[in-house]
Amino acid sequence: MFLIYFLAFIVNTKICWSYLVLPFDDSFQVPLPGPPNFKDVGEPLILTPYIKSNQISKARELSSVESLLNDKPIVSNSGYFTVDEKYNSNLFFWFFRKNSSDWQKAPLILWLQGGPGCSSMYGLFEEHGPFEITEDGLNERNYSWANHYNVLYIDQPVGTGFSFTNSSDGYVSTQTEVAHHLYEALTQFFRLYSELKNNALYIAGESYAGRFIPSISYKIHNSNKLAYYPTINLKGLFMISASTNGGENGLAKFYFQIGVIDSQTRTELEILEQTLQFCISSKFWTAATLTRSALLQGIQLKSGIDFYDFTKTLAARISDKYVPFLNESSTRKKIHVGNAIFSSCHSDKTVYKHLIEDISTSALPYIEDLLDHYPIAFVGGQYDAVVAYPVVVNVLENLNFTGAPYYKTAKRRILGGENLDGYYKSGGNLKDILIRNAGHMVPHDQPRATLDLLHKFVNDELW
Fold it and tell me: Which family does the UniProt entry place this protein in (predicted)?
């Protein structure tokens, strides 16, 4: 029997490591790209020196963004927080006040995009910010979260979006480092906006932010226990299409059930899933990440669908319409980024490569701990086939936290009344939500339903 297990180990190890031939084997020494050459855009606005010297009014004045919509003033501030002075690592932020006079009393929503390496400017321009790019140019969005909340968009980790570092050693490779940088940025933000420091904070995000959100929340939770750290009033986690665990199983079964692969392809993909589990259990993290990449690529090649929305083809994938706008010299000058390189999402693999071993690790231990203290919403899209809802539910049903028995026996309810926006189930602090007629980018596909859901979550109405 021992010999059988030993031979199986050898075979699986060989298969597992065979995926390292994919083009990431030279990824860890990444040369820093040179800056673009835009004219009359100014310099990146680093606010940290002003905050440290208590020049708060000056920092707010300098970071003020001239309204991008000529017919409607939208109050916002943008700039950089230095999060690692040794390497001159800086995170870009863009903050929007609630669009009303009572903004100082409104909750703060921190938005984090996934990837890793996708800019939160996607969420701002394509999903729920005050602006959207249409064929007519820049317009006001109907279902902007900033009509109801203060919203803070941060490009992170370093190297994402407009965020930058002066050293190849300035990139992060673990969630601990991710959380440290984000915490540094948040504490500086609350010094810049001290009137918001006691307001409710909700951390929201999408996709791989299912790792970022638990990491920064766990950091906040533990730092709040220590007298020498500022208290941050964290109230909840709002995770959309959240990838929390690089080893989720069940995609092959899911694709077979929706009819886009046959039984032979399902068997081939299940072998990849088994290999993925072996890589993870053996802590071959890089091989695990590349195996999962091969699994997803295999699905697309065999089916032809866009796994971000299985009702669409790859040719119909959402374009980054906002990128040319952000790269206009006039925009760059207004938002204080200067000549900083903009990496939208996987346009520069540097962030991904530095986090390649982290991608297949799990955020579930953080989540299980946090569920005993904060409400956490898992929001899935019906047509999402990369973080497929049935696969997520399987993860949720196996979580170990105080409210788990209540979640498992909770009644599933209709969300949105006659609109039939979707379904939800609530037990303990866990909120499990499916939004109908949406893919991976739920706020993009169903903006009203997502905003209504956010209201219910913030107002503790999901019972």
Answer: Belongs to the peptidase S10 family.
